[in-house]
Structure formats: C-alpha cells, structure tokens
Amino acid sequence: MEGIRVLDVAPPAADERVRYGSDPNQFLDLRLPKARGAAPLLFFIHGGFWRARYDLVHAGWPCLGLTAAGLATCNVEYRRAGSPGSGWPASLQDIQAAWRFVSRSGARYRYDFGRAIVAGHSAGGQLALALAAHEPSVTRAVSLAGVLDLQRAWELHLSNDAVVEFLGGTPQQTPEHYRDADPMQLKLAARQAIVHGQIDSIVPPDFSRRYAERKRNQKESVELVEIAGADHFAIIDPQSAAWPQVQNAFQRLLA
User: Fold this and answer.
1) Residue 249 dihedral angles phi and psi, to the nearest 5°
2) pTM here?
3) What are the CB-based long-range contacts (under 8 Å, 24+) for 81-87?
C-alpha cells in the first residue's frame, strides 16, 4: 500500500447529479471539462464487490482526474447486493439504463457520446465488460483491476464469496447467471484496455492476465497494461505513481 491516499476523503462535488431512474440508487454524477467543445465521455462504474455498503464516492477521484485530462465523466450508481431489488441481473439492468440515458443526453450536457469509453474498477470492471458484451453500441472498454473471471472468484472465495451474493448462488446453483455475467464467457466486439497493478492483493493480477490471453486467442482487441508497484487502489488514485500509465491507456483508446 502507498500510505494515506486522496481516496480516503470525499472528492469535490460533481457538476451535476442526474437521475436515470426512480430507485434511490439510480443516479450518476457528471463532471465536465472546462474546455469548449464536445469532450469524449467516460462512463465509469465503481467497485466494492457489488455490495450496497460501498458507493460511488471514492470513484469520484478517478473521474475528477480524467475530467482534468479533458474527458466528460459520469460516475454511475446502481443497485448492489443488499439494497432493495438488487441481485443479478438488476445491477446490469441499471448500468444499461444509465448507458441509454447518457446516449440520449450528449447535446444537453456537451459531451461526445460517439467517443464514449465504458470503464470500471474491481467489480465495476466486470460490469463494464458485461455491458460491452450486452450493448453493441459500446466500442471502447477499460477494466481497472477487474474481477473478470467469476468462476475463479468463486473458487478463491474472494471477499467472503461476494460473487455468490451477487449472482444468487454458486456456479452449480445459478449457472445461467455466471454464463451471462462472466466476462471470461462473454464475447466482446469493443476495443479493450485491461489494467492491473502487479502487487494487487484484493483481486489477483492473474485475473487480468488470464482474461487477456483468452480473449486474444479468441481474436478480441485487448491491450494488457500491468503496472509495477501498484496495488488495487493506486490505479484509481490520480495522485499515485501509477496514474500516468492509467491515463495513457484511456488516451490510446481514443487515439
């Protein structure tokens, strides 16, 4: 770990909080760059092992960092395990509803939806790639320390079987949920950047390595970025030594 981080405190408030549905968890925080013109949109999905006690606040920091780099950002909240109406596929349905909302709102909020990137951290990485698999309009996707192999997450009992809570059972009990949710089993047409810190002790780096190898063998467009000395949270901390490499991964997708 890198000691005290900016992630330990709440970021400055977003420019606007916008609702995309009627549930208390169905909203997103918009941040817009100061430069004139329509900026590329970053659609960001926070992590927390899909659990309701972890919200979008900490994800405001990477969104703030990328807004400073010239992207319009929306930090998405969604129903998570433990909140009313949660469970699979509710989380994905919320992410899809938010994505469709932002697809209609570019002119109003001054961003370029045609250059949108979907990204997520940790459990949000799984949701980002699941969205890309289920929504053909997603053409660029980034996973930051993503839980990209749900079968393996169950085998390792990551975060006290968080994936079992999320998907409503084990792979034997709810195989259809694992089939529809697991990025390892889904087909993506989007260009992908898979970013992971090499000393991540929360989601092992092997999750991203194995995912990238499998998807390259399936002829998907995948760039793997491993960052030496970076742990699970360094890659969403704009003040970390890892951040320039993270930011460059986004810029390459937009090039």
Assistant:
1) -65, -40
2) 0.96
3) 81/50, 81/51, 81/52, 81/162, 81/165, 81/166, 82/51, 82/52, 82/53, 82/165, 83/25, 83/52, 84/23, 85/23, 86/52, 87/166, 87/167, 87/168
Write down the H helix ranges in 122-161. 123-134, 150-155
Structural domain boundaries enclosing 221: 6-254
Q: Which residues contact 196 (CB under 8 A, 6 or more apart)?
A: 144, 145, 146, 203, 205, 207, 208, 209, 224, 225, 226, 227, 235
Element at 192 (helix H, strand E)? strand 191-197
Give me the CATH number covering residue 76: 3.40.50.1820
* 255, burial (CB in 10 Å: exposed 0-12, middle 13-18, buried 19+): exposed
Number of independent structural domains in the chain: 1
> Within a domain: residue 1?
no
Cβ atoms of residues 192 and 222 within 8 Å? yes
pLDDT tens profile 105-162: 998 998 999 999 999 999 999 999 999 999 999 999 999 999 999 999 999 999 999 9
Residue 93 lies inside a defined structural domain of this protein: yes
Q: Listing from the earlier edge strand, what are the strands of the sheet with 39-45?
A: 16-19, 27-31, 72-76, 39-45, 111-121, 140-144, 191-197, 222-227
208 part of a folded domain: yes
Give whole-number Cα distances, 167 to 58, 170, 173, 182, in Å.
24, 8, 10, 10
157-210 pLDDT, tens digit each: 999 999 999 999 999 999 999 999 999 999 999 999 999 999 999 999 999 999
- Given a contact cutoff of 8 angstroms between Cβ atoms, the answer to whether 10 and 60 are in contact is yes
